[in-house]
Amino acid sequence: MHDAPKTNRAVLSITAPRIELAKVEAEKNALPKNELELVIAEVRGKREPLNETEELLDSSLRSLQEELEVSQSDAYKQALDACPEYVNSGDFRLMFLRAAKFKAKEAARRMEKYWEARLRLFGDQIAFESRPIRATDLSEDDLASLHSRGIQLLPRKDKAGRALMIVTRSKFSFQSREDISRLLWYLFHVALEDEDVQKNGVVILGYSEGSIDIRDYDRKLNKVNFELVSRILPVRVVALHHFFDSKIMELILPLLLFLMGGELRLRYEQHSIARWDADRFLENLEQFGITAEMLPIWMKGGTIDFDSEQWLGMRRTKEAT
Hints:
By secondary structure, the protein is of the alpha/beta class. The chain is built from 14 helices and five strands. Helix 12 links the parallel strand 4 and strand 5 (268-271). It is globular.
């Protein structure tokens, strides 16, 4: 196992673009009242998923096909030639439509970026296999942050049927930034095997207990992976909960808020870890549909003894059948 590479250069540029929390609140308040209410309801797991009528599905798939027929993406065209059954399947395309809230043009652009990123991250031999990425496609370096508890897809969904993914930057273990991107790619696709998750979305729990090493801040890593979840993978991140007490994180946060983009910023919630005891901490999370039995034991108030080795073994067995 290896730790995330540290850098000796200055990592917090005084000229780097940033957005303060006050600006985030202003962005929320600038939304029309009905739109803001929908965002708040979704973050809290109180919004009903869209009614997917046959008419909506059929018309959306037709519109997506029309958009893709004029695609100029070389990677998409390569995928279409190499694995047409996968690229053209309704189930595959519906993931992109759901992620784009059934906006066909947005779904098409996301699908193009998906194949460009899949080719870049995995190479053509794996990228153009007629299937999702599997655990066996990942190297030990790719999987290191799963074993170190840096990134884990939790085994239970929240009360609203949304997948829960926990990200602990201080526990990342990788040799290159692409290791993290490949792991995220795989875990999000595992979550998307559940159609309810495609419809209801994913909640990210960013957990930073105790002190934070400022050298862990990696602008390129954050930029690439916010892009991955916001514009490339066929997934909707409906809430991003950030748990920390560090003064260092307060310096880093405006940089992260800028990088995550407007849609994610609207869904960002900040939480203190040290301010409350476990009961009060969990009481706060329950308003977002998250309870103790959904969280790992190493997270405050959590009760799940999550074994990543066992989970990975089960995945490999399932994917081999």
